[in-house]
Design brief:
312 residues; Methylamine Dehydrogenase, Chain H; four-stranded antiparallel beta sheet; 28 strands; 45% strand
């Protein structure tokens, strides 16, 4: 794969007055890109996807990189994964594309738009669509819908837990919900949730499943442990009611990205809020990851922050 550093990449001034020089020590602001919905790490590259397409960022310097020659025009990128062979998968408005060895391939039959991607434990790729969910394995694309598929559509987020159970979330603000899939069983499990829209799913080291829900100023985080489902809201420590994204870092801290109010970091029993007033690129945090060096990448509705591994 040939990637070239773009000269003169822009680090813009933050809307609330922060500049690159007066951000907290060790922080980096990368803008463009602007709206970011998904992030994934591959070797020395952080891939970022959003409304404006696909971006490659040098993991060490934060510099924007050019895409491989003859890359297709991709818009509304909503999912990114790197499979066990090193191929990059991109879910976007026109379907799903795969980058292998610098060459692109469109996945024939994938939904358009494609809304989510996830790898499973067998090396397959799950693709979320508006009317079904799809599984790709060894060149075969299989749709699941109706009685043999998710209860709630569209499928906006997909997660497989340590036991192999698949979870499919729909972010529809009225008819959304969470589907559990194990073996041949498809099961609706979100009755009684604080909000029907499912925005993010993750599992912690203890096997507790966390689900981000909500829209605008309504919602919260749900978590499933041995005693059933429980709810966290802003009153418990969240930055805002809607939980837009989730991350668990190497220190086992839980990061909750909100729609308007930045991030709440939970390090039991303490909460810390990271907001635009403290240097965050924007209040809506849509994607988060921690890279191999321990640095944090926060994709927002208006740019990316990179925070050092030493961030308290």
């Amino acid at each position: 794969m040939v990637i070239v550093i773009l000269a003169g990449f822009v680090l813009e001034r933050l809307a609330d007055g922060f500049s690159q020089t007066d951000l907290p020590e060790g922080w980096l602001l990368i803008r463009p890109p602007h709206e970011i919905s998904t992030l994934v790490e591959q070797d020395n590259i952080i891939w970022a996807g959003g409304s404006d397409g696909l971006f490659a960022i040098d993991r060490q310097t934060g510099a924007l990189l050019s895409l491989p020659q003859n890359s297709p025009t991709l818009r509304q990128v909503r999912g990114l994964v790197v499979d066990e062979s090193g191929s990059l998968w991109v879910a976007h408005r026109k379907g799903v594309s795969r980058l292998t060895g610098g060459k692109w391939q469109a996945i024939i039959g994938a939904p358009a738009p494609a809304l989510a991607l996830a790898l499973d434990q067998q090396g397959g790729v799950w693709i979320g669509g508006e009317t079904a969910v799809y599984h790709y394995q060894a060149g075969v694309l299989t749709p699941y819908s109706g009685n043999n598929g998710p209860f709630f559509l569209p499928v906006n987020t997909i997660y497989q837990d340590r036991n192999g159970v698949l979870w499919f979330g729909s972010a529809d603000p009225v008819a959304g919900g969470l589907t559990r899939h194990e073996g041949q069983l498809w099961e609706s499990v979100s009755q009684g949730f604080i909000h029907p829209a499912i925005n993010a799913i993750i599992e912690d080291d203890r096997g507790t499943l966390w689900v981000g829900t909500g829209l605008a100023s309504r919602g919260g985080a749900m978590f499933l442990d041995g005693d059933g489902w429980h709810t966290l809201t802003k009153a418990d420590g969240l930055a805002g009611e809607k939980v837009r994204s989730l991350m668990i870092d190497r220190s086992k801290r839980l990061w909750f990205g909100s729609e308007y109010d930045g991030i709440a970091v939970y390090d039991s029993p303490q909460w810390r809020i990271i907001s635009p007033q403290s240097g965050l690129a924007a209040g809506e945090v849509k994607a988060m990851l921690q890279d191999v060096d321990g640095n944090y990448w926060l994709g927002t509705s208006d740019g990316i922050n990179r925070l050092p591994a030493t961030t308290p």
